[in-house]
Amino acid sequence: MSLLIVGSVALDTVEANKRKIKDALGGSAMYSSMSASYFADTAVVAVVGADFPYEYIRLLNRHKIDTSGLAVSSGKTFRWCGKYSCDLNQAKTINTQLNVFSDFTPVLSKEHKSSKYLFLANVDPDIQEKVLDSVKNPKFVALDTMNLWISKKIQKLKSVFKRIDLLLINEDEAKQLSKKNNIIQSAKKIMSMGPEILVIKRGEFGAMLFYKNNLFSIPSFPLEKVEDTTGAGDTFAGGFIGYLASCPKITFQELKKAMVYGSVMASFNVESFSLGKLSSLTLNDISKRFTAFKKITEF
Amino acid sequence: MSLLIVGSVALDTVEANKRKIKDALGGSAMYSSMSASYFADTAVVAVVGADFPYEYIRLLNRHKIDTSGLAVSSGKTFRWCGKYSCDLNQAKTINTQLNVFSDFTPVLSKEHKSSKYLFLANVDPDIQEKVLDSVKNPKFVALDTMNLWISKKIQKLKSVFKRIDLLLINEDEAKQLSKKNNIIQSAKKIMSMGPEILVIKRGEFGAMLFYKNNLFSIPSFPLEKVEDTTGAGDTFAGGFIGYLASCPKITFQELKKAMVYGSVMASFNVESFSLGKLSSLTLNDISKRFTAFKKITEF
Which residues contact A167 (CB under 8 A, 6 or more apart)? Predict the structure, then answer.
């Protein structure tokens, strides 16, 4: 089964733990596709500038990520610059340069249009909708978004919500979207907007899954050293959806395992800056951490 | 096996969810003993004033809590007045009146001195130490504390830590005590101070257990309606230690179940003000929620 991901590609400048990296690979499409690539055939639809380092494309291709949908525009690649305080939970955005992203219109190839799994990673909901319109009869559509779009484009988001199966969102965004402080009340309100499956991401405190009347809750995988939390949510989403795309059937049991795989992938991701650790895993690393996750949560 | 708990008895005035209760039963000894009483024979050592409503003592006795160690001093009962913001995670203390607590010296009966399980609930570490000195050869000693004592009496606390088996502490206090931001690093540092077992309570985000080189992590039990979180940590501790006191042997497996029972009891407690719900449970309620907890965390 093939998974198509639309999202951002960024060159990130990040300061965390008194260290700084410059123009490193980032963006929602990059974290999520790299994470998904361990589970399913993955393709990306996104835009980069002429300054985008070719080594990053080679890195994606080494992971068998189909980059034929990666448009190279004249101009500069999208840039994000952020800094983390010592608790690493929340980045302060220093600046954002949209660059080639500001007038990106996704164009899908015939093959991409027939993707069975679609992940609309965090980008402008207008772009998410365009991609959704282009894909014929997808089996499963997931979407991630952020506070910015909830504030600025809520009507568009709500109309897209009616057409998706899964929404992934973090806890603060869920509260913002639902105007409810309680997480269960929040989840019910959001599910009434359309998605049958909802994942609320809670960062270092884990994640919750809502599916019909079922609920599943996990802590995060505990880590003694966290380097940089950038992209953790995207990585979670990629692992989650990548795993689902590898399942013959989507059941509550598989959704629960997808939660754990998402969490496992995110835990690797935060152990290094950029995609350093995420891009150098083996299936054995993932399987071992899945088992370890089971061990620390089972009673 | 009998469990002796020393801690505070308070008359609480609490504002939460736009409701307010006045002079309701509270204090670390009350929440923890009520919670423990569902699992083990429990006795309390504490002090109240002459104004303490007799109905509260009858309530404790109906739960077979031994109140022979509850000293009634002339003067007023300890009072705490707090207010919660809408997220219910953190109370703002409006005022604290120590009253009879200010010169409380615990005196233990012969029977209490031979208690096998001892819980030094959150009070002044000088009081905790006096009780610990009085109990002959306890099998298991647990302690809870708070930010105030970590700031004001750290040397006394550290000397008591060397004599306990289990420390229960919330996440902020763990960071304050260890001067570490990472929870795993924090746990290692705290365990090097003495306790072989450490529980870090994370409120609505669950709890973590550290035992030798083992780790266990749980989310909290999800609730659609939370009324008042006062005493949740004490209730957790009471359920945890009460369950342990009912086990023939303390193993990692039993400690994990104690975590879940602690969490289950705390989840009931926050569903009402004061000890309303906590004091009106059946063993069947507890057992059903334990099973529900397993269902929402198992994969």
Answer: A142, A143, A144, A145, A161, A190, A194, A195, A197, A198, A199
| Sign of the four-CA dihedral A245, A296, A184, B174 | negative
Residues A161, A193: contact at Cβ < 8 Å?
yes
Which burial class, exposed, middle or buried, applies to A205 when counting CB atoms under 10 A from its CB (0-12, 13-18, 19+)? buried
Q: Give which of B4, B146, B171 is closest to B89, Cα–Cα.
A: B171
Task: Give the phi and the psi of residue A19 in degrees, each rounded to 5.
Answer: -120, 160
Please give the Cα distance from A88 to A225 (Å, whole number). 11
Which ipTM did the prediction report?
0.92
Residue B54 class from Cβ within 10 Å (0-12 exposed, 13-18 middle, 19+ buried)?
A: exposed
Average pLDDT, chain B: 96
d(CA A185, CA A250): 25
Chain B residues contacting A via beta carbons under 8 Å: 86-87, 181-185, 202, 204-206, 208, 215-219, 222-226, 253, 256-257, 259-260, 294, 296-299
Q: What is the pLDDT of residues B46-94, one digit of tens each?
A: 999 999 999 999 999 999 999 999 999 999 999 999 999 877 878 899 9
Supply the pLDDT for residue A1: 53
Min Cα distance B116 → chain A (Å) is 26
Backbone angles phi, psi at B26, to 5 degrees: -160, -170
| pLDDT tens column, B240-287 | 999 999 999 999 999 999 999 999 999 999 999 999 999 999 999 999
CA distance B33 to chain A (A): 25
Is CATH 3.40.630.30 correct for A2-297? no
pLDDT band for B1, please (50, 70, 90 cuts): low
Q: Is the dihedral of CA B14, B220, B238, B123 positive or negative?
A: negative
Question: Which of A186, A253, A299 to mutate to test binding with chain B, by most B CBs within 10 Å of its CB?
Answer: A299
Main-chain phi, psi angles of A276, to 5 degrees: -50, -60
Distance (Å, whole) CA A10 – CA A121: 13
Which of B204, B231, B234 lies closest to B219, judged by CA? B204
Closest residue in chain B to residue A203, using alpha carbons only: B205
Per-residue pLDDT for A17 more than 90? no
Q: Are strands A207-211 and A197-201 parallel, antiparallel or unpaired?
A: antiparallel
Residue B108: partners with Cβ closer than 8 Å, 6 or more residues away: B4, B45, B69, B131, B134, B135
Flag if B215 and A222 touch (Cβ within 8 Å). yes
Nearest residue to B28 (alpha-carbon basis) of B134, B112, B146, B141: B146
For CA atoms B59, B63, B64, B65, the dihedral sign is negative
Domain ranges of chain B: 2-297
